[in-house]
Amino acid sequence: MPDLHPTFDGMVRRLERRSPLGEDDRRALKHVQHSLRRVPAGGHIIRDGDRPEYCSLLLSGFAYRYKITGEGARQIISIHMAGEFLDLQNGFLQLADHSVQTLTEAEIALIPSQVIEELALTRPAIGRTLWIDTLIDASIFREWVVNVGRRDSRARVAHILCEFSLRLEAAGLAKGHTYELPMTQEQLADAVGLTSVHVNRVLKQLGEQGLISRDKRRLVIEDWARLRDVGDFNERYLHHDATAMAA
Amino acid sequence: MPDLHPTFDGMVRRLERRSPLGEDDRRALKHVQHSLRRVPAGGHIIRDGDRPEYCSLLLSGFAYRYKITGEGARQIISIHMAGEFLDLQNGFLQLADHSVQTLTEAEIALIPSQVIEELALTRPAIGRTLWIDTLIDASIFREWVVNVGRRDSRARVAHILCEFSLRLEAAGLAKGHTYELPMTQEQLADAVGLTSVHVNRVLKQLGEQGLISRDKRRLVIEDWARLRDVGDFNERYLHHDATAMAA
DNA sequence: CGGTCGTTTGATTACGATCAAACGAAGTGG
DNA sequence: CCACTTCGTTTGATCGTAATCAAACGACCG
Questions:
Q1: Which pLDDT does position B243 carry in this prediction?
Q2: Is the CB of A193 under 7 A from strand D?
């Protein structure tokens, strides 16, 4: 289903929204040395403990990062959509500290770590925007710590649904608080630190109260203001307005 | 109690362990433009929503980052010790998405965001090491998501005690799995997503089972192997061996 | 048409929260 | 120097949210 001639445009557009790029930077990014790979739904891109020599850029589809505890429980750490880097950290850290798996069939570009590093360190505008990208990633991790650490089940689920809505919309993959969420309830549960059974009950309740409605994987946020309230959601941590001026 | 002539040596040593620096880089770091500030215990360094113009470097003492939920609950997001940057992200993102507060009296160096940014973007070796610093920060956040999301109370507490031990030792602030932890049980609870009452019970139990012993704020890990096991602790995420070669 | 995967619902359990109170140490003021 | 307060720790009793266990159902697929 995803396009067979994927481009780097989405990634460049995303980066550019955060920090200005020159025409040469744009060209350098769009023509970075890379190889393409198509990964089936549920396929692994990186495994915890790997020593990857590439950074993966998601060109189409969805993916997520996760860790498994000693007890065998899975915690999903982040969700990624087309245009996002999946493991920029592998450009600088040599051992993967978590795994990355696709949610849907996906196309990824593998960019050698060395190449990413060189781009980031020799072209200030690119370094700046990639750095901001990393920092926003970290900001989302912090919010997730709060979400699983201090919010009750209703709020956790509502919060993540709000986050998805804004991120998908920013990526051009949703509009009007309506989107296709390619995750099972079990995956959702592993993202918010609950069981799938309980997530199911929370979703049902949110539906009954008119905050959302669902049809298969399609989700409509019927009452954004209330869902936002229930989820204690403040979008500041997404830094979507991060139009930081150039130095 | 902290020294009155704090230096940047600790920070430089930390950064250098991760990625090599030239003599000129070292000098540039040690003589960065900055101002000093002394903050009492419990004082705020940054507040959520601030628009800070500086990055703070902790020269002595301890600090932590946190967020408050709509319900008024606090989640501590990270703990910091002398030599660490408290908010490198403020060099590139203009709105603080969380607060930073001291645990003890502390000395901090305020470095203008512009200056940090220029250093990072014009000196590749510095950019590289600061980037790695940011990436390791993010790796710790990810582990904390797992800790609060998927581990039971015993494991959560044990895990964070293990993390502290290794980080303090790496910073030269502890040895032999023995350290002074300047946190109340309530702060510990807010770091692991539990209540202080429950943290107290877990600590008591860990003590009774001979895994740790305590005297005031002094903590001794009596049985590292077992505590590590109970806490499902694998130090890989700390990337202390991140002696990544230069490009 | 059977089989697998994901969703949904029900019944019961348990872990950690909450409420409450006492205790000890350190600091303050009379 | 000693009451008195404050802050943090400790312990006990009870409660409630979400986990667990179990089973049925629906959709999609070969």
A1: 61
A2: yes
Which nucleotide's C1' is closest to A188 (Cα)?
Answer: C6
Q: Cβ of A128 and B121 within 8 Å?
A: yes
Q: How many Cα neighbours within 13 Å face the side chain of B115?
A: 16
Average pLDDT over every residue of A188-201:
98
Q: Closest nucleotide to residue A193 (Cα to C1')? A: D18
Q: Does domain B152-231 have CATH number 3.20.20.120?
A: no
At position A183, the amino acid (one-letter code) is M
Structure confidence at residue B9 as a pLDDT band (50, 70, 90): very high
Q: Write down the pTM of the prediction.
A: 0.95
- Interval B146-150 mean pLDDT: 98
Q: Do A152-231 and A7-144 have the same topology in CATH? A: no
Task: State in Å, rounded, how far the first CA of chain B is from the last one.
Answer: 42
Please choose, from the candidates B197, B173, B172, B2, the residue with its C-alpha nearest in 3D space to the C-alpha of residue B102: B2
- At the fourth CATH level, which superfamily is domain A7-144? Jelly Rolls (2.60.120.10)
pLDDT tens digits, A111-148: 999 999 999 999 999 999 999 999 999 999 999 999 99
- Mean pLDDT (whole number) for B61-76: 97
Q: How do the domains of chain B map onto residue ranges?
A: 7-144, 152-231
d(CA B97, CA B85): 16
CB-nearest partner of A89 from B73, B135, B155: B135
Which DSSP letter does residue A246 get? P
Task: For strand C, give the nucleotides within 7 A of a protein CB.
Answer: 5-11, 15-20
Would the CB atoms of B97 and A73 count as touching at under 8 Å? no
